[in-house]
Amino acid sequence: MIEDMMMNVKDIRQHFIKELKAERFTTDKTGQKTIELLGASFIADEPAIFGKPVASYIAAELAWYESMSTNINDINGFDKPAPAAWEYAADKWGNINSNYGHLVFADKYFNQFECAFSELWNNPDSRRAQMVYNRPSIWAEFDEGGKSDFICTNAQTFYIRDGKLHMVSQMRSNDVVFGYKNDYAWAQYLMGKVVAEWNDLANKHNLSTFAPDPIQIIEHGTLTWQVMSLHVYARHFDLVKING
User: How far apart are CA 61 and CA 121, in angstroms?
Assistant: First the structure.
């Protein structure tokens, strides 16, 4: 079983608690202290590592991803500013690179979600059902027009094993407090979308009089989280202390 071989969210939480107590810090580009774990790999079995998910914001961000807008002013509308992290990433007009729905659903990027789904449908044992978020051109695009948006997710890959849909989400950089919660919600949304669309097609196929062989119904499986730099900023050290 995947779960038997990996750390989980509880293990990651304890790691950061111990690192804070030991005062093992790194310094980010702004001079802020951080606790950092390089090469993190664990089962994402909880929706938050520290703090609690904000359901209203997650719903707004998922709707924005579905819209495929690349302007942060469309997250909350012009009556309410976008979160500070998005404002920091955007140019002065609010344009960014990291609308994840745009990156996986848009024809501009070859509708990667449909490509990955089709790959699984045609070959359920495949290792190629991958959506690539980052790209070589990001080196010219991340600071274009005053942006600071070097896409944080590198790739996500779907696998069907033993009747379950699993995903491995691979990230360049992930803030433990805000980033993980919202990115976890997006990953779970995508997994749910694959399961729902798969089972809908499978049921239609299986009910067909002319269906030669039944297609297996699948269940929601394990989400594995892999991050090159998983980190907590100094402004969130109090959340770590509360859990310690």
Answer: 28
> Are 186 and 60 contacting, i.e. CB atoms less than 8 angstroms apart?
no
What ranges make up the beta strands (E) of the chain?
7-8, 26-27, 33-43, 130-132, 153-161, 164-175, 219-233
User: Which domains occur in the chain, in start order?
Assistant: 2-243 (3.30.572.10)
7-61: pLDDT as tens digits: 999 999 999 999 999 999 999 888 899 999 999 999 999 999 999 999 999 999 9
Pairwise CA distance, residues 16 & 230, whole Å? 10
Q: Which amino acid is at 201?
A: L
b/e sequence 87-125, b meaning 16+ C-beta within 10 Å: eebbbeebbbbbbbbbbbbeeebeebbebbbebbbeebe
Catalytic annotation, residues: 152
Q: Is this prediction's pTM over 0.90?
A: yes
